[in-house]
Design brief:
The complex is a heterodimer of chains A (477) and B (176). Chain A has 477 residues and is mainly α. In chain A, 65% of the residues lie in helices and 1% in strands. In chain B, strands 2-3-1-4 form a four-stranded antiparallel sheet. The chains are: A mainly alpha (477), B alpha+beta (176).
Chain lengths: 477, 176
């Protein structure tokens, strides 16, 4: 007996059976790459190659190739780092927080969103290595006794916290993602016709058999991993924000940073999920799985987090005036009206005004408009980090130290590198792994399970499943 | 999954509800079910089969406590004992500053420890992919019930009939 609430549209459309789900999702994994995929992959590789050349020169020649000067010592590198880490947060939100809240719509998008998280964190980490200038010294950030005595890393420093936060976040996300992949890899293994794919998918499926005992443990550890990832994702961006907030630079030294950064991270991450999903659903014909309902729900999250970000901007500004610290006040006044006014207003327009347009149901359900706004939000969130970092630094206390930052082709090239890396990884993922979590989609394909009593749903219509009249199309076999 | 041996009856169902309701019916009739294999988790199936509740949560907690202790020991020893330093005018051992890393390492140890326990307790791991299975459709759209004939006193025919009555669409015999 399944309970279906008539007030909600089904999560998965098209009257899919279990076999249909397997077939629809496995099709693109098993088939040869399409022409569109090859073209997109070729472009990504070209972009990655160009970026790699720029990056190689950055490391060979040194950070002098960037546009940094003695006043602006952090610019695009840290902007890009924070931007990519923030994008990653939406994947964890979808896979962990929405799991805890029992939001079943996450099942169609969690796989791709988590993949996005992992690739985005890789891109973010690449900027950490870049801005070190000497990446072969990266191990200095680890607590290892050095050659001159047992001097250790400074555990009081948020930069060291960041090392631990980002690496924990990356590895735990990877594990969470992989655990979710195992049942689907087993599905592909059992359908595989060629020896090589049977071996590859079989090896990574780790002998999964789907027994009731294994599933019970699987569900249990998924829940604990979600419970761990939820505070983890909040801690990561909190610590990223503390890289700034614990300093004494006016414009950075504010207590509002942790919640404001976390909201901004989820905001930009959902925009990136929208971008990727809107393309993926068309390319892989997943319109029945990633429906307008999914898009609309994500747009609501964008509006909510965008509003939080907007309130944070205004609060920050108010406190800069109300706090009465003139340096603080100047930093914010300079952001708004100084030489970087265009960056500030780009940020305000993209992040505060544009998500409010989603209050209109028509716009929220328009695919073209959603795609457009998602791009706008990502641009806005990049500007947010640029504004926070560069405008707080560029006018030092002494006017003789005032400077402007202008990017060189290597600043830009290294940013392009991260795009090449991200899209190359995402395209490889979307070809060789199932982009939708088949096992979880199968589990929610009938809106709810028999465990839910009819009265919980209130208006629910209870339909008895019988052999004579199946509610849900029986598998055609 | 461990290596299998012996003679099994394999009931194939095409619906999760049917198999969930079949399990208590069959157990009442005296059939000892080895395991049910499904393409997705079916809530309540493990209880219906009489599997004990998983203790993996206890293991996870232990790993978490380990991570927490490792982190605090590492930081207190390096910062306070091995090379004491006053940073920002604070005591060399200033525990509030150690909380972020303590949290991260607790999460890291819990996640990895729990997942490794999960792999070991389920017999999952590299090199197990060639183990024989009852029915490969159980990762696609079928729900497969395995009954070890060696452990059942009922005859194969009787069990087979009971399986059919409970809604199985086919019943096969599998010998390993």
């Amino acid at each position: 007996m399944h309970v279906t609430s008539p007030v909600r549209e089904p999560l998965i459309q098209g009257g899919k059976t279990y076999a249909d789900v397997t077939e629809d999702i496995c099709r693109h994994v098993e088939g040869t790459p399409t022409k569109e995929w090859k073209i997109a992959f070729g472009i990504s590789l070209l972009v990655l190659a160009y970026g790699s050349v720029c990056l190689a020169w950055t490391w060979w020649e040194g950070l002098g190739v960037w546009g940094l000067n003695k006043t602006v010592g952090w610019a695009w590198d840290i902007t890009n780092f924070v931007w990519w880490v923030g994008i990653g947060h939406a994947g964890t939100l979808i896979s962990a927080i929405l799991l805890l809240f029992r939001q079943k719509w996450r099942t169609s998008i969690n796989r791709a969103a988590e993949a996005m998280t992992i690739f985005a964190v890789i891109c973010a980490a690449s900027f950490i290595l870049m801005h070190m200038g000497r990446p072969w010294m990266a191990y200095w950030a680890l607590p290892l006794p050095n050659a001159f005595g047992s001097l250790w890393v400074n555990f009081n420093s948020p930069l060291v916290w960041d090392v631990f936060a980002i690496s924990t976040y990356f590895s735990v996300s990877l594990v969470f993602w992989y655990i979710g992949l195992i049942p689907d890899l087993a599905t592909i293994r059992d359908r595989a016709t060629s020896k090589i794919s049977r071996l590859m998918y079989g090896t990574f499926a780790m002998g999964w058999d789907g027994s009731a005992k294994t599933w019970a443990r699987y569900e249990y550890i998924s829940l604990i991993l979600a419970g761990l990832s939820t505070p983890l994702v909040l801690s990561v961006h909190t610590i990223v924000s503390m890289d700034f907030a614990t300093s004494v630079i006016p414009g950075w030294h504010t207590t509002i940073f942790p919640p404001y950064f976390v909201a901004g991270a989820i905001f930009s991450g959902f925009a990136m999920v929208q971008n990727l999903m809107l393309i993926t659903r068309v390319v892989y014909r997943l319109e029945d799985y990633i429906t307008l309902e999914h898009i609309e729900t994500m747009n609501k999250v964008i509006t909510l987090t965008g509003s939080v970000v907007g309130v944070a901007y205004i609060t920050e500004f108010f406190i800069a005036w109300y706090g009465g610290v003139e340096y603080e006040y100047y930093a914010f006044f300079n952001r708004m009206t100084g030489p970087y006014w265009w960056a500030y207003w780009a940020m305000m327009t993209c992040n505060v005004i544009s998500p409010q347009l989603f209050w209109s149901r028509k716009l929220r359900r328009s695919i073209t408009f959603t795609f457009f706004i998602s791009v706008v939000v990502n641009i806005g969130m990049w500007f947010e980090r640029f504004v926070i970092i560069v405008t707080s630094l560029h006018r030092d206390y002494v006017p003789s130290s005032w400077a402007m930052f202008s990017p060189t082709m290597f600043d830009i090239g290294d940013y392009i590198f991260s795009f090449g890396l991200f899209f190359t990884l995402f395209l490889l993922f979307s070809k060789y792994l199932p982009v939708v979590n088949m096992a979880e989609v199968k589990a929610v394909i009938r809106s709810t399970s028999a465990n839910l009593p009819a009265k919980i749903a209130g208006v629910a219509k209870v339909r008895q499943r019988g052999n004579a009249e199946p509610v849900f199309g029986k598998d055609q076999e | 999954m461990a290596e299998l041996s012996g003679k099994y009856l394999v009931g194939v169902y095409d619906d999760d509800d049917t198999v969930l309701h079949a399990v208590p019916k069959l157990r009442k009739a005296g059939v000892k079910i080895k395991e049910v294999y499904s393409p997705f988790p079916i809530h309540g199936l493990d209880e219906a089969l009489g599997h004990p509740r998983t203790r993996i949560g206890i293991a996870a907690f232990m790993f978490g406590v380990t991570g927490c202790c490792v982190a605090l020991t590492l930081m207190i020893w390096t910062m306070g004992i091995d090379w004491p330093m006053i940073i920002g005018g604070k005591d060399p051992i200033s525990v509030p500053n150690y909380i972020p890393i303590t949290f991260e390492l607790t999460v890291l140890f819990t996640a990895f420890g729990m997942v490794i326990t999960f792999f070991i307790s389920n017999g999952l791991g590299p090199g197990t992919h060639f183990h024989p299975r009852f029915d490969e459709r159980s990762t696609d759209n079928k729900f497969v019930m395995a009954i070890d004939l060696g452990r059942n006193s009922m005859s194969a025919d009787e069990i087979s009939r009971a399986l059919k009555d409970s809604g199985a669409e086919e019943v096969n015999i599998k010998q390993f």
